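Q: I have 1407 residues here and want to know how they pack in 3D. Can you give me a structure?
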Amino acid sequence: MAVALVERHALEGDPTTWNRMMYGLKLIADAAGQRGAGVLVAVVQQQGLGDLPPDRVQAVAHNLSLDRRLILALPILPPTGALPDDPAIRHVRDGALARLGKLVLELCTAYYTRLARHVTEKAAARRNALGGPLPPELAARTAFKLAVYAEFRQDWATAVAHYREAYAAILALQVGTPPRPQRWTEVCAVAELVHLKLIMLAVHQGRLEDAVAQVRAHLAYFGKPPGMLAPASQASHLGYLVRQHQVAAQEVGTHVDALPPYVPTPAGGGGTTTGGGPAGAGFTGSSTVSGLNVNANVSLPGTATPAGLQQPQLTGGGGGAVAGATGTTTAGLTGQTGTGALPPPASSSSLKDCSRAHLLMAAARLAVARRQAADTMRASRAGGGAAGGAGGGPMLDTAPVRRGQYIGQLVLRNEAAQGGYSPLSDHDYLLFLESEESRLVTPALVIDVMSSALLLLKDSTGKSGPGSADRLRSQLGGMMATEHIQANNLSAARKLLLQVCHQYRREGWLLPLLQALVSLREVAQRLRLPAEHLCYSLEIAALATQLQPLPPSAQQPPLAAAAVMTPPRPRTQHPIALLTGAAPTRDAGVGGAAAAALASCSNRIVDTTAAVAACRSAVQTLVTGISEIKQGIMKASASGVATAQSSPEAATPAGGPSPETSASQLQLPAGGLAQGQTPAVSTGLPRHFHYTVEHLDLRKAQQRAREAGDTRPVAEIMHKHTQHDYGWCRCVALAAGFTYGRPDMDTADFYLALYNQLPLPLPLKGVVLHFADDQGDMWVQALPGVLPPDEQPAPPLPQHIGSALDSATHSFHHLHLNSHLRPHSARLQDSKEAGERPAEDGVPVGDRLPGQVHQADGPPSTSSPSPHLPPHRWTHFSVRLAPRCLGSLRAERAILLLSDHATVVFKLASFPPANAAAPQPGVLTGPLLVPPGSAGGGASVDHAAAPFRSIRVTAPAGGVAAGPGAGGAVSGGPAVSPGQLSLTVAHLGPLPRLTYGLPAGLALLGEHAPLLAVLTVPPGGRQLSGASMEFVIGRTTGGLQPGDIVLVVDDTEGTKGLMALNNERYRIPLPPVEPGTSHTVRLWARSAAAGTAAVAAVLLCPAQVTATATLTFDEPFEFKCKMASEVGVHTLSLPRLSARELGVTALTIGQPVMVTAMIRALQPATLEVAGAQVMLEPGAAIKLVADPNQQLSAQGPGTCSRLARGDVLTLLLPICPTELLDHGRSMGRLNLRWRRPAGQALRPAMPQLHQQHQQQQQAAGQGKGEGAAVGEVEGGADPLAEPCPDPWVTTVLELPRITVAESLLTARTLGPSQVTAGIPFTYSLQLQNFGSTPLELMISLMDAPGFSCANERSPSLAVPPRERSSVAWSLTATAPGHTMLPSVRLLAPRHNCALTTQNQHVYVQPL
């Protein structure tokens, strides 16, 4: 459908414009008609112009023979003056375009529906003519057309169904057995196109499971051709598989990687994916790509199977998943004919085999296999054979070959043929394929495939864990390095292999690391890098012997061969599967089988005997400094490898190289001679081998580079680092740390443990440790063994020698280092001179203990310590330092002087802190390698023990080292802190003593309790200068908070006065204190609450010396308070609406109240009370009538009331409520001002240690005739005579809580105090109304025994407002004696309140 856009002014314009528009429309209509397409005219106009002119629309429809409905207005232009981005305008424009698109889609759908109906009818007619189903070729063509038409109609379900029919028909094609090369290539090409359509539509519809199932089925079918292909055709087909994996990774793998880690399995899913171990296998041992069993039908005739297609899937999930797909989907495809719909795709809970990383890795392996096949054909053609299976004819000129008109077809230019081209014969086609593969397939092509995979994996994070993508990149980098070696690009191969080895070392993948090291050693050998070649030989020997179940001497034949890179047997479990499988079982048989399998895998990579021989040669090179790099030491030469790959008879058996084949193929390594044989003397000048070992945290290194503005890639950062790390951490493990405690304040002990992981002893001339402090660098020599208790600090080496040890260009001969190094047996000689029994590493001869340096199968050595590191044993070195200054003392480097020509420098500060809870705490260089013979059984004693836990010291009985039978007890060695490489030197010399002088008496609440912080410097110490003292409030009890304590410190040196502190840390400077003298700091503590508090004084010199004083503050007084009103006066108040509060006294407004305050002294101390002051609350609603100070000054002005323990001071406080108070509130506080009498003030007591120090000073002064007093020594007055800052104390006492209510009425009962029995007397009740309304009362005289009433007992009375009233009764006593007058009850009904008076006592006389 062609859509012609015209403007409205052209439609409505003059005849010239009209004719020009119609001419253009007719051209478009003619071109569309020739292609069978329709035309639709859209008139572009401004919004709001309305419909198109009917006459012009009719004219256009008539001239173009169109339906008028195909000419429509398109209002997409904004009106004049309107903004283009107006939301209303944008809404109208989008609606118009949507209507246009809908119309075009309907027209296209109708058009393609007609075409599809025509194809369907034609196919049905052909099927009726044949009387059966269509041939597969015609069925595939018909289904593909119908799928394309459905895709144009956006009928995705129908398109997928027809594409599946086409794919099933393609798989049903007969290609022959073995298949014809051209026929098979055409089938693959067409199937690739349909396969791409299927996965793209499945991803577009969000059906990722269908896309994954299609990928699995496609790779499973075409990865296993139906029959044996010719070598040239097979190599070309490998290129086809490479392209399929790359396309699947781009189209499907990207979406698989975006899924969450766990995808649920739909109900009824048939396929089940088996997840493998972590991706990280060796880079040359590859897999059956995505589970394809390529070995069965992809191997080349007459050649060895490509190494990239031999071993099972290592990256996880592929084999099982494709097996399920092959058993279901593929079977369904091959069984379909014309109707051929695929069965439902098998759902899986794991899609790892279709992730981008795994598909790209499979493509890389297939590219390697294709290059190997091309190399085989080139080698066969060079040898005169017919590698391509073309009968040995000459190579075909590929210039006349062109692509045909059908997909996958090739034709040959032929002038005599019709059309100028003729089809290729099968023989010519195979020659063409062989020519193209030999010309195009090179290592550079494989590197391009791997580079694209690395580019896609660059930002991948991996779904199996944070490090899975790194491992895949490392594996791919190793494969690329192999191709670079094939292309003779050794520098690029070395750069890649260094990164791969770094990753494998960090992850602990030993077998892939061993394989990478073999390649890296070959690169170093060909590049003539003796330093790297030497270290790789050592590391290979350490790894190879570690993987053996028995020592090399017991398992391998005598030294007669070197290592050979042998391809593993097909269908053999990869060594990584043994490392990443289930958890190790305790069954000894299973463990032995696993160890044997590991040893077998290791033997396929390197010969252990040759590795040990190369290690011995490398050790000899370290001693002599003369290196001879020869070819063929660890593996076969390039020609040998090519021969082994091209000839299956020449391949080494899977069980490892036999002595005959190894001896016949390879040369003996230099220095690899049997024991007792004299090596040949090599000529040449010795060189120096200098290695610097440091730990690299790649992420931190990247972050530092970004912060510094360094835009170098990660590869360059890692490459720069690996120039200093050639794997020495695998050869020598290192543990270090300072001891937990210092022997004294002038020394510090440091221990270094070395674990030789090589199969041979490693020479060690000496160990030099590099320390750094605030004064600079310091180099000292460490000696083997445990530090004796009385050893003196080691003297530092000269500065010029120490600084030269870290450089790679120094010469030991010119610097005369040997004259400054002490021999290994220096401590042994010192112990002999002291008359002690010879011991080694602190263990007497005859005591064999764990961790002791001794031979593997013999008693401990009785000779002097050997200048070698024994294999698979911890060797301890120690040094005692004399710190030069205060601050941090750091262990920077450990320098191992292997010989006069070899140095290994470990940068201790670069390694991460060692975990003290690890199996080997303190090991900075990572986990140890398992010694030979320990894989199937238990590890050796030294390997299983911690590096410093294995040190033992025998405590001699009676001062002489004795054996086990002489009573010597084995005790623990030095307490080394694993991984502690930094020590803070806080003080040099003996620490000062800090003591507290506590108060001599009991401290009372509110008063200043004096304290003395006495600092004493020992006579043998150093001058204390620049020190300071800090005071801190510590733990409190009894409800006391740190904020309740106030410290007053005499800061004479700082503020020249007193400083008050409240819950703060305060630091005061101290004057210089000479040795043998003391300094006293005075301070006072005052508490606002009772309880116990700890006051800590911290001396910072800068070491921390702490002293703590515990103070208890007690209440000085006991306070009670009573309140009473006038006798006989009662008040009638309104009832309270709220609940009555506990501990609250209710008062009546206007009624005077007398408060009696009683204060009793509680503590055994005499106190002088000088004043009392009542502090009323602002809202207390009361008024104080009299000042309490008048009662205290009654004895005279300036006098104080003294209180001893148990004395009571009573104060009368008359008050009168003046305001209403509904809720309980405190009346206020009573402040008492008191002090201790003069001469009885609280003083501190001098500490006992300080008193002893004073006595010693006085005795020393008398002995010398110098009567120096203590005060003179301290440089000031007697601190005990100093008064406290303020002797007066104010104690705050809380007054009771009250409420004040309004009074309605006051009632007072009046009666005589003495009456006569039988004689009447008057008993009256006086009332006063304080309200503004009349008060109606019901009055009742209560019954009382012994009295009779002559008038009415319950009268009613109304009291006017603000008036007084009274009621009188005439009573007669009936019996003499003391009795109670009757009480009166008053009831105010309207106010719902009542009052009952109290009974009065009266004496009744007898008549």
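Q: Anything worth noting?
A: The longest strand covers residues 887-899. The chain has a mean pLDDT of 75.
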